[in-house]
Amino acid sequence: MSIDDIDSKLLEILKKDSRTPASKIADELGISRMTVKNRMKRLEDLGIIRQYTVTLGVKPLVSAAAQPRKVERVKSGIPGFDELCEGGLPKATTTLLMGPPGAGKTVFGLQFLYYGYKKYNEPGALIALQDSPEDLLTFASALGMDLDMNKIIIMSPFSPDTMIRERADFETLTINFEKAVEEAIIQVGAERVVIDPISIFLSRFEDIYTRRREIYLLNNFLRSRGCTSILIAENYNQTEYVLESYVAQNVIIMRYGIDGNHRKKELEILKMFATDHSRGLHPFWITKNGLNIEPST
Ligand SMILES: Nc1ncnc2c1ncn2[C@@H]1O[C@H](COP(=O)(O)OP(=O)(O)O)[C@@H](O)[C@H]1O
Ligand SMILES: [Mg+2]
């Protein structure tokens, strides 16, 4: 890789302004335009010139950003929830919903989708990785929600058996999963997506870098489609989803403790994108009409 004096001078000119016309460079260096072009081509082939970049002035960027931007809200419709977070989840963000078994995560996810189309005319997709679609329909029905299959799609990309017992290779698993999510969104034009539970998918990635990449790509994909999504995480161990808690824009925890001789359930918003959310622990109940969250802390 040899460059001579003329090359060095040519590079100096281009470093100052990569759009300097070949005729001007030719004049400055006392060579022909054709020679300038040939030399530039050679420098590109050698990888010495990798790209010609454009630097934007600060002014136009600042004035564009100065436009008032409002965070659009997606109402969950769940009694007591939207009041805790300025009217709903920020649109096109991803929420990690964590909690131990029986906390009510699936109920939350189903209500988010059900009210989505019932009250706000927004179709939704449920990616079911644990319960069968039939069980979920029965579950929803027992909570007074008859899901309209034209507005809500329940997609089971693979059986729990495949996920847990078979050692399906990661590549196939990931491709099938992503395809299923994309198809589900397209089929009903989903604006809301619930993945229940994401844990099954993520637990297959033993190596932390792959797991980070997968969750990052999934979050980007869902957001790029404009979907407001809930990823349900089975939380037995608080530190298990540290990675996902950083990647997701919002984190909600549903948990329970013991109060006298009965279980007390409570919901907490740990973080939420651009939202002055409640910092309280909000008691909630699940009845045959679904979740009901108390405003008081
Ligand atoms: N039809 C119903 N009537 C009353 N309570 C219900 C009904 N369905 C579910 N629940 C309550 O919700 C709990 C299960 O919630 P679920 O969303 O499945 O938990 P998770 O997904 O967090 O494991 C049940 O243990 C019960 O307390
Ligand atoms: Mg569940």
Provide a descriptive summary of the structure in words:
The chain has 297 residues and is an alpha/beta fold. It folds into two domains: 1-69, Arc Repressor Mutant, subunit A (Orthogonal Bundle), CATH 1.10.10; 73-293, 3-Layer(aba) Sandwich (Rossmann fold), CATH 3.40.50. 40% of the residues lie in helices and 21% in strands. It has helices at 5-16, 22-29, 33-45, 58-65, 105-120, 133-142, 160-164, 170-188, 198-202, 208-224, 242-247; strands spanning 73-74, 89-90, 94-99, 124-128, 152-155, 192-196, 228-234, 250-259, 262-271, 282-287, 290-293. The strands form two sheets. The chain has a nine-stranded mixed beta sheet, sandwiched between helices. A two-stranded antiparallel sheet has the order 1-2. The longest helix is centred in the middle third of the chain and has 19 residues, at 170-188. It starts with a helix and ends with a strand. The model has no long low-confidence stretch (mean pLDDT 89). The structure holds adenosine-5'-diphosphate (ADP) and magnesium ion. Adenosine-5'-diphosphate (ADP) binds at residues 99, 101-107, 142-143, 286-288.
Strand order of the largest sheet: 5-4-6-7-3-8-9-10-11
Distance between the termini: 70 Å
Name the shape in a single word. Answer: elongated
Overall number of domains: 2
Bound molecules: adenosine-5'-diphosphate, magnesium ion
Rounded to an integer in angstroms, the radius of gyration calculated over CA atoms is 27 Å
- In the predicted model, the low-confidence regions spanning at least 5 consecutive residues are none
Look up the CATH topology of the largest domain.
Answer: Rossmann fold
Structural class estimated from helices and strands: alpha/beta
Number of helical elements: 11
Largest sheet: 9 strands, mixed
